[in-house]
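Course assignment 3, question 2. Fill in each field.
Student: A.L.
Task: Predict the tertiary structure for the chain below.
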Amino acid sequence: MLELTLVITILLSLIGLLVLGANTWKKGSDRALCIMNLQAVQKGVRSFSNLNGYEPGRVVAGLEDQIIGTGRFVEAMPICPAEGAYTTAGDMIPAPGELYLNCSLASEGEHEPLDLEDW
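Answer field:
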């Protein structure tokens, strides 16, 4: 009976570790996908500004609508996999190293790229 109790305790401990590992993996996966969404929109903004000859810092009326939408640079407004909210920088083309799209979870130290130098 003691051996059976010990085996069950060990199995429950291993299952607990597995659940913790799965949760950590899910958080990392959500963070990576969110950063990929930010990067896709950032590339769309850069492509739009390069094609139209707009310099960073310039205000372009309806910039979000010209970048995001069917047949545009980004097909649809991305959705954060961890249920964060995305906000745009409005109608101004951001300078290199600044994001056009930001996730609300970035303030918690998550969902923010570590290096924006070449963005």
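Instructor remarks: Helices lie at 2-52, 63-67. The CA atoms of residues 38 and 101 lie 6 Å apart.
Grade: pending
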